[in-house]
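INFO batch 0412 | record 1 of 1 | parsing
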Amino acid sequence: MKTKEVISELRKEYGLSQDELAEKVYVTRQAVSRWETGETIPNIETLKLLSKLFDVSINTLLGSPRKLICQCCGMPLDDSITSKEENGMFNEDYCKWCYYEGKFRYSNKEDLISYCSEHMADENWSSEQVRTYMEKLLPTLKHWK
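INFO prediction complete | emitting tokens
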């Protein structure tokens, strides 16, 4: 989905007119109209306001141009599990289970690996297979480099 479609759909989902949305993010109705026709896209400060207003990530507003993964545990991210800072802004680097309100939940790799080995194991992946996978994956992620 393109940015113009995302903004238009979110505005309508929230029951806002173009004028009402413009007022909430401190732009003109014409600016909102240009976003929705694809003529322009919001600047970064406006994207932050839209992100907070609609409770979606900037990545979502931009049409999810890149696939995000948690840089602590490797889990694929979408808006429902992406972490947030204390001020409510999305932190698109981490999932809400690894990073919550400005704090990391795992102080070392072994704690995370142990947790994942216990909770991710199932009939398809043994605890030891999960452990081996996580031991290889974690060093490639930004948080553990």
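INFO post-check: The helical segments are 3-13, 18-24, 29-37, 44-54, 58-61, 109-120, 127-137.
INFO record closed
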